[in-house]
Structure formats: structure tokens, C-alpha cells
Fold:
Amino acid sequence: IPIINKLSMLNVKSEFYVYGGMQARWMTPQLAELFNNNRFKFISFGFESVSAEVLEKMNRKGLGGQLALDNALNYLRAVDFDLKSVMVFFMIGLPYQTEKDMIATLRYLVKQGVMAEPQRWAPIPGTADYNDLSDEIKKKDLEELYYKDFLAPGQNDEFLKKVKNAARYCNMGCRYSNINVFDEEYKGIMVD
Structure:
């Protein structure tokens, strides 16, 4: 914040992009105003899931969840920040995650008017999720675990691809109002 204030005082013409998924709980009304008034062109948040159970299993429960994201987006709306320039990352394919949770998370983000960016889960050594995997899976080459689309036990690869494609399609609708995000191809994911 002090750097942004200094640049603003000096009337430095610049643009800012916040990649990497800042925590929504960090957003305040003052920060939203600062972002809006100082040429922040893109903001991303890490959200993970609408499911409290998934957040608890990920050890992310204390990060604010849906309430923190609602507040952050409302602060940005209050200063007329373009929510089409906000991307929210969420997880898909966790071993304990249901298809219902992934769909609910995508629907929630689309209704907020932000770009939804699903991130496929990959096991990270030393984490509880990795430790819960079978020894057979842990013996796999790291390249297979991280650089290819890892599939957790019990997850459906075709469904995960469909969620990613639906998110891309919805993001196009978010940016281009003439695209119907509830097209027949994604009806099973986007509407009941």
C-alpha cells in the first residue's frame, strides 16, 4: 500500500495486475478503492470451494471461505471495479470432493460475475492429502503426479474436463455479453 500511495502521489502512469490468488479476506473497502483508483487491471483470488467440508479437509477453513469472497467482491462493486477483471481460482478433483461441490462452486462464481478458474488437484509431498494416498500412487514419478493431469482415486477425468470447459465457456460469457453461458452443451453443469 505505501508503494502504491507513493506512485500515486508522484503521478506515475502504470498498471497493476495481481496474479497468484490473493486471499479474499485481505480485501478491505480502502484497498478496493486503492485498487480502483490506481489502475489495477486484474485481480485474482484463491477461493478453493463453497463447501465448508472441503475447506476443512484442505485445512483452509480459517481463510474466510465464501463470506470473505462475498465481502471482497462487494467492496470491489462498491467502487465500480470491473468484476470481469477478477479471476477466482477453485479446486477440482480433490480425493474427497464431490461432483456436486465442484458444480456448486462454479455456479456460485459465475453468478458473481467473475472469471472462474478451476485448478486440478495434484498431490504435494508432505501434505495430509499426499500422505493419505496409497503407497502405490506415491511411488509414481513426480512428473506423472504434477505435470500431467493427476486423477485422484474416485474422481472422473471426463467430468473434470467438462468442469474446466464449462468454466472457460462461462468466462467467455463473463467477458462477452452476447454469449449464452447456459448453452445446451453445459446445461447439466450450469442449471438444475
